[in-house]
Amino acid sequence: MKLSIELPEQEKVSKKRYLIYGLSIFICVIAVVIVVSLQILGNDWTNKMFGITAKETKTEEEENELKANFGTLFMNTVQGQDEEFAVSKLEEGKPLVYTDYERKENVTGSYEVDLHIPKINIQNDVIKKYNQEIQDIFKQKAESVLVTLNRNIIYTVEYEAFIENNILSLVIRSNLKQGASAQQVVVQTYNFDLVTQKEVSLAEAIPLLGLTEQDVQQKIKTDIQKEEKKAEDLRNLGYTIYKRDSNSDTYKIENSKQFFIYHQNLYIIYAYGNEALTSEMDLVVM
Q1: Between the chain's N and C termini, which has fewer beta carbons within 10 Å?
Q2: Residues 68 and 26 in one domain
Q3: pLDDT for position 54
Q4: How many domains does the chain have?
């Protein structure tokens, strides 16, 4: 008696399935190539190979030069063209930022002032709040100095504004020295999107410059840790130096309010004189 065994027919593989298999293998190969490239050749080569554009990392020398030149930026002007933006001005014929209050006076033994207090020339509720804050912080202080006698006060206010990436950035710096008291430097910045006509946060500005929040947060932490160490060393030598705490929430991106964009560089300012009687500040540049 012969046994008859029937074998199952071989399943036919469709062309569609072959295509899926091939595509999956191709994606895996590309992923492996990218990982190996990063490991062996580094980010720069890989970015060029795959057409990835990333903001160039500055050298320490370039960073130090930008920081050293920070004080030279203040010329009481606005840099950039505003004609292309459909904004309603408070005063036609004037730029988007102009000097609203200006005074230079020296009364021996009482005060010496050099004041250039700006106003943002835009009809907008956010800008209205900005202008009021500028008055409250800088003009009110100026007026109080001007009626103070025999206190030997030196008070200066200067500003600079920049228009880049559709963002108007205004930076104001004041310097106060009163008698034998410590010098106090205050820095306030205002960032406004001229297209959406809304306030711009640091988190919103970061991707406009080809940066990531992770990279920026790490750069802030690294720089502040360096300054914290320097300050600690100087205090150990007997100097009075503002104490940093690199673990403070102050240095989180969401709490970093003082920043501006200039020549596609991101400046983040920690001006300790905004809250304390000191002229010290830390500047992070990317």
Answers
A1: N
A2: no
A3: 52
A4: 2
Considering the domain boundaries, does residue 55 fall inside one? no
**In this structure, are 70 and 24 located in the same domain?**
no
The segments of the chain whose pLDDT lies below 70 read 1-55
d(CA 146, CA 128): 26
- Are the beta carbons of 52 and 212 closer than 8 angstroms? no
| CA dihedral for 31, 36, 39, 40, sign (positive or negative) | negative
Report the largest interatomic distance among the alpha carbons of the chain, rounded to a whole angstrom.
Answer: 129
Shared domain check, 82 and 21: no
Contact predicate 82/95, CB 8 Å = yes
**CB-facing half-sphere around the CA of 151: CA atoms within 13 A:** 15
Domain that holds residue 265: 60-285
Cα–Cα distance, 55 to 78 (Å, whole number): 25
Q: How many CB atoms lie within 10 A of CB 7?
A: 5
List the structure tokens of 267.
């400046």
User: Which value, in Å, is the radius of gyration of the alpha carbons in the chain?
Assistant: 28
- Give me the pLDDT at residue 82, please: 76
Which CATH number goes with the domain that contains 100? 3.30.565.40
